[in-house]
Amino acid sequence: MTQEVKEIFGTGTGPGGAPPAPAALAAKVRTLAPSMTRSMQRVAEAVAHDPAGCAALTVTGLAELTGTSEATVVRTARLLGYPGYRDLRLALAGLAAQQQSGRAPALTTDIAVDDPIADVVAKLAYDEQQTLADTAAGLDTVQLGAAVSALASARRADVYGVGASGLVAQDLTQKLLRIGLIAHAHSDPHLAVTNAVQLRGGDVAIAITHSGSTGDVIEPLRVAFEHGATTIAITGRPDGPVSQYADHVLTTSTARESELRPAAMSSRTSQLLVVDCLFIGVAQRTYETAAPALSASYEALAHRHRNGSR
Prior knowledge:
Helix content is 55%, strand content 8%. It has 13 helices and five strands. The protein has helices at 25-32, 38-49, 51-55, 59-66, 70-79, 85-99, 117-138, 141-152, 164-178, 189-196, 215-226, 263-285, 287-306, and strands at residues 157-160, 183-186, 204-209, 230-235, 248-251. The protein starts with 24 loop residues before the first helix and ends with a helix.
């Protein structure tokens, strides 16, 4: 008998959770806007673009400004992680105060075909910094801590990813192997499923998919979930299909795509941050065994570095 499919994880704070800090509001909007209805997007975009102006509005005033209803405003506030509109207004006021403290305006990151290379470097550097900041602000540390605990005690970990996410999957498994954990990265969907069948309670399966809807990644995660493994999703769409089969969901920043900057570039940056957080957390939890394993791997490769080999 298979287990019932889990309910999709909510994007709010959950029971006992605290609302997002003001600084996290803009990141939350960028992450969740693509999955909102058009009317909710108008509300979210309004509060992100003019926090000071919206903080001065009642729920009725914001509904009129955005051409929506009071119910839509309240639903948007809750989706962004606030118990109600009053809490959202307080966050908006705090965000407005931060913006008025003299922080420099945001640099546009749109890269033109004729941009000088120095401008390209500056724009990419700024965009990647923003992507990392957004991911850090929106990352649920409770979910992260639970994922770290599962990995630290796992018999084995399988990581699924294709394309750019497959490269991130390989990065995570290499890190885990260096500290003595048994880990495998799978980008071939057939091998991923056949390996997932072998997982059981005490094992961990991790799916990395920015869209949250990559079938070649969702399928092995579903199989692992049904066989009792602890499952983790690293995704930019926490309401996507992959979350149905995830015990823990780690949300990455929504990629800002342009003609010369495909979404895979931004998503990879945010995924690598989450992967590094997982790795460091596991290394901390397993330090007594991780430190000697890491030293042993360095020693095993030392002669290659001395000989100048690659």
